[in-house]
Design a protein that fits this description.
This protein has 245 residues and is an alpha+beta fold. The chain has helices at residues 3-23, 28-48, 54-61, 66-77, 79-87, 95-106, 188-199, 204-217, 224-234, 236-244, and strands at residues 122-125, 136-143, 148-153, 156-161, 165-167. A 5-stranded antiparallel beta sheet has the order 4-3-2-1-5, with no helix packed on it. The chain is elongated, with a radius of gyration of 34 Å. The relative contact order is 0.06.
Length: 245
Amino acid sequence: MNLLELANSINEVFKQSKQFYEAGIESFKLAIAADKEAGEMLIKVKSSLPYGQFGDWVSKNCDFTHRHANRLMLIAKNWEKIIATLDTRDESESLLPSLRTALALAAAEPKPEAPPPEPTPKYKVALKGHACYGETVEVKEELNKGDVLVCKTSKGEIPFLKKELIPESQLLESVDAEIIDVEVEDISEQLKEAIALVIEYLPEVELKAVLAASLSIGKEHLPSDAQSTAARLIGGQDLAILGQG
């Protein structure tokens, strides 16, 4: 069924729904069933259209508003909840209050759809002689008003001048430029001082835990005598637990 045929079917079902509602309380189930049918067809239409075009399509092809179309689709999506509310009502109870309760969710003002996220820009590294030359990379962060792009590469995160990159779809042409050297401040000495200050206030149990964690984390960096001393101070039981980790 094409979109024009769907539009005709939707309008016909909408007409039936109006007639059912006008007929009174006893026809309400038939009316809301017609709404559900129209909602299902609208969902099909919306899924077949590009993003943002559904509202215009409804305005041009349907005998109701975009807002009402959203409500019809909500009825279709929440049909099981609605029909369960209607079916579990007391026989002595009027259908109308139950119907209002059931429609509270479906007839609520729908939240506006968020636009699809923009794709992350990708580039090719055009910097001649660079280890990532020719590689397609993804931009993680822009610096210096977009003149410097920090990119995810096979060698890690590397900053490039924008002129050292070309769009992914463009043919690769090498450029001559210098790789940006980004100096990272070494704060290891400050960290050592801070750790020394903190551990002065820790009791023995917590100190052992810190030592055990340090031994586990720094195995590759600690000389054997430092490892032996730490292991001896931790104790045999704690060392066994550490070895299991």
